[in-house]
Amino acid sequence: MAGNNLREALVDEIRDLYNAEKQLTKALPKMAKGATSEELREALESHLEETEDQVTRLERVFELLEEKPRGKHCAGMAGIVEEGSEKLQEDAEDSVMDAMLIASAQKVEHYEIGSYGTAIAWSEALGLTEVAQILGETLAEEKAADEKLSALAESGINEAATAGESEDEDMEEDEDEESESKSAGSSAGASARSASGSKSGNGSARSASGSKGTRQRGGRR
Ligand SMILES: [Fe+2]
């Protein structure tokens, strides 16, 4: 139950995140499998590794809070994951599928960025410095993953996804679903751009993966 006090509310939020990260350890491999761009597949796979570390980090947070590591069904993440798996069932062109996968993955990241940001602010307000610091390591990874996805979208996936656009008229009648997906793909690009706030090329996708350094510190192995 979201608590009577901020500490209980924090524990509740951590349980939500614990469940959300665990849902992702199952969803990310399926998303990676659905990706056709090699770089996108690698990005999703490397975020899976990070996600596994993030689960471990949350267990450390439970320990610091003297609470049992127990998740609480995260309906928000379940909804985002469900939407993503519906997209995966669609019969889309490879590049359009990649654009849709990026859109789904960024919705995941944005949900997590919001939740971790809240949990960090609450930890700080409660004077739980170490908890805030551990959660901050994960928040940095989520932001880096989000930026990497924006960079991938902008480095050619969105452009490739517009390749069939001129044939739309012929396909309009029987491909209603597909044209919907296409507009979803391109709006993902727009939001990706505004989210990252920068126009980064291929190179930055690579440098974003340099954030692995952050990951090691909190790894607690
Ligand atoms: Fe995560």
Describe what you observe in this structure:
With 221 residues, the chain is mainly α. It has one domain (6-171): Ferritin, core subunit, four-helix bundle (Ferritin, Up-down Bundle), CATH 1.20.1260. Helices cover 79% and strands 0% of the residues. It is built from 9 helices and no strands. It has helices at 6-34, 38-64, 75-89, 94-125, 129-161, 168-171, 176-196, 202-208, 212-218. Helix 1 (6-34) packs antiparallel against helix 2, helix 3 (75-89) packs antiparallel against helix 4 and helix 5 (129-161) runs antiparallel to helix 9 (212-218). It is elongated and about 55 Å long. Mean pLDDT is 81; it is low at 178-221. Residues 21, 24, 51, 54, 112, 142 line the site of fe (ii) ion.
Query: How many domains comprise the coordinates?
Result: 1
User: Structural class given helices, strands, pairing?
Assistant: mainly alpha
CATH architecture: Up-down Bundle
The CATH superfamily is known as Ferritin, core subunit, four-helix bundle
Beta content comes to under 5%
Radius of gyration: 19 Å
